[in-house]
């Protein structure tokens, strides 16, 4: 009885070894070739990023080198990721094409970028009064009650899709502002930082309303109002695509 039981166990063990060997060979074969209907991203080339960091560009993509994409969804996936790059607001155009496609469904993707103009200076000219009629009639359209200066926005300041802003305003009211936003300050590119400071001052203070007119205390030699403001904050972006059910 014992001999028959051992024989049965040996036969089962032998069949199990054969089955495992077949499964292992199938898995090895699938590792060498892709499943039908999928392409394997062998590499990703980037062209046209004269200033922008390549790591920043790759961070915006839904895929990386080594991923597989369904052939059916390949076109829409590339188009969607092109729009993701455009949403950075620093490119005039962003197109993702297939550079090579071999017999084993291995593809090389090429990202063709055209960087836009990053520096936008905007001249400032505004009236210190409530509206044009007040300035023209009540203050005899005096140029002393005019503010002038420049508002500068510098996109992609260091090639990381960061933003530098400054505002210089002179004339009747002075205002000076500096602001900076960096979207990724850590290695994983999940944390960003923003900070701003501003200082303003004014020669006059409104103290009373007489009918439809505002009465001011004014002294060209003295700054009645001085304001200083500083702020800072963190930006958290853990992933590219947000899945609401993950955070419930």
Question: In words, what does this structure look like?
Answer:
A hairpin with a 4-residue loop joins strand 3 and strand 4. The protein has two domains: 38-115, Roll (Ubiquitin-like (UB roll)), CATH 3.10.20; 119-236. The relative contact order is 0.10. The protein starts with a helix and ends in a 12-residue tail after the last strand. Residues 1-5, 27-33 and 243-248 have low confidence and may be disordered. With 248 residues, the protein is of the alpha+beta class. The strands form three sheets. A six-stranded antiparallel sheet has the order 5-6-7-8-9-12, with no helix packed on it. Strands 2-1-4-3 form a four-stranded mixed sheet, with helices on one face. It has a two-stranded antiparallel sheet with strand order 10-11. It is built from four helices and twelve strands, in the order αβαβαβββαβββββββ. It has helices at residues 2-32, 54-59, 71-86, 132-138; strands at residues 38-47, 68-70, 91-101, 106-115, 119-127, 146-155, 163-171, 173-182, 191-202, 204-210, 213-218, 225-236. Helix content is 24%, strand content 44%.
């Amino acid at each position: 009885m014992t001999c028959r039981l051992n024989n049965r166990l040996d036969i089962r063990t032998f069949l199990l070894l054969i089955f495992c060997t077949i499964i292992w060979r199938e898995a090895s074969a699938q590792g060498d070739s892709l499943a039908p209907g999928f392409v394997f991203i062998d590499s990703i080339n980037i062209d046209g990023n004269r200033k922008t960091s390549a790591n920043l560009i790759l961070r915006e993509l839904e895929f990386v080198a080594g991923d597989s994409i369904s052939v059916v969804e390949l076109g829409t996936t590339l188009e969607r990721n092109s729009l993701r790059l455009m949403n950075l607001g620093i490119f005039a155009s962003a197109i993702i094409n297939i550079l090579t496609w071999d017999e084993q469904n291995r593809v090389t993707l090429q990202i063709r970028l055209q960087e836009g103009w990053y520096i936008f200076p905007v001249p400032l000219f505004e009236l210190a009064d409530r509206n044009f009629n007040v300035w023209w009639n009540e203050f005899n359209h005096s140029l002393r009650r005019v503010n002038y200066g420049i508002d500068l926005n510098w996109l992609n300041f260091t090639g990381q899709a960061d933003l530098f802003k400054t505002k210089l305003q002179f004339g009747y009211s002075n205002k000076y502002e500096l602001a900076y936003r960096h979207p990724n300050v850590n290695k994983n590119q999940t944390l960003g930082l923003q900070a701003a400071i501003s200082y303003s001052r004014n020669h006059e203070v409104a103290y009373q309303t007489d009918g439809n007119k505002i009465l001011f205390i004014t002294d060209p030699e003295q700054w009645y109002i001085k304001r200083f403001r500083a702020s800072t904050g963190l930006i958290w972006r853990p992933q590219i695509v947000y899945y609401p059910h993950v955070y419930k």
